[in-house]
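Comment thread on ticket #2218

A.B. wrote:
> Attaching the input chain for the structure job we discussed in standup.
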Amino acid sequence: MKPAYTGMTRIWKATFNSLRGIKTAWRYEAAFRQEALMCAALIPVALLVETSVAERLLLIMSLFILVITELLNSAVEAVVDRIGAEFHELSGRAKDIASAAVFFALLLLIVTWISILFF
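C.D. wrote:
> Ran it. Output below, let me know if you need it in another format.
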């Protein structure tokens, strides 16, 4: 059994695992790379556009929500693919639902950015 880490050791190890997860997503997930690059392009826009602090935070938060959702979607897909390559209705359902979550996160991002920048 692995030792249960506590305190700063646990935080350090959790941070390392998170960074490894980001590296893995970048390497294997094209959608994650696209969304990360979109964030790299849009975060400076969010910081430079003339808006309130609350609106600026909403712009940036909508980007992070999309990336977080994409990471969770990729995790679901990896687990389903690990279980087996043959089609199963529940596997397809899990992938489709995770994909729908990404769709709604993207829709939220679009609505937020249009609302703040154009209205």
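A.B. wrote:
> Thanks. Noting for the ticket: The CA atoms of residues 26 and 33 lie 5 Å apart.
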